[in-house]
Amino acid sequence: MQEDLNFEELLKRSKLNNDSDAINKVAIIGAGIMGQGIAQTLSGSGIEVLLVEKDEQSLEAAKR
């Protein structure tokens, strides 16, 4: 039987296991709508996020 998990649940399980394979840092390329959402979700889960964007204005908008 396949278990359906959402992104947040997978992150939570990764952190609870204190496993050396746990996700601790993530780089996201692109600070558009999707990149911002992913960065917010990950950082809210306590994961260090590096957000890369070539357009300075888009990067500043993502920070806000």
Written description of the protein model:
- The chain has 64 residues and is of the alpha+beta class.
- It has one domain (7-63): NAD(P)-binding Rossmann-like Domain (Rossmann fold), CATH 3.40.50.
- It is 47% helix and 16% strand.
- The chain has a two-stranded parallel sheet with strand order 1-2.
- β1 (25-29), α2 and β2 form a beta-alpha-beta unit.
- It is elongated and about 40 Å long.
Compose a concise summary of this entry.
The protein has helices at residues 7-16, 33-44, 56-63, and strands at residues 25-29, 48-52. By secondary structure, the chain is an alpha+beta fold.
Features:
47% helix; 64 residues; two-stranded parallel sheet
Could you tell me the mean pLDDT? Answer: 81
DSSP strand count: 2
H/E element sequence: HEHEH
| Shape assignment | elongated
CATH topology label: Rossmann fold
* Low-confidence region ranges: none
| Portion of residues within helices | 40-55%
Present the secondary structure layout.
Blueprint: H1 7-16, E1 25-29, H2 33-44, E2 48-52, H3 56-63
Parallel strand pairs: 1-2
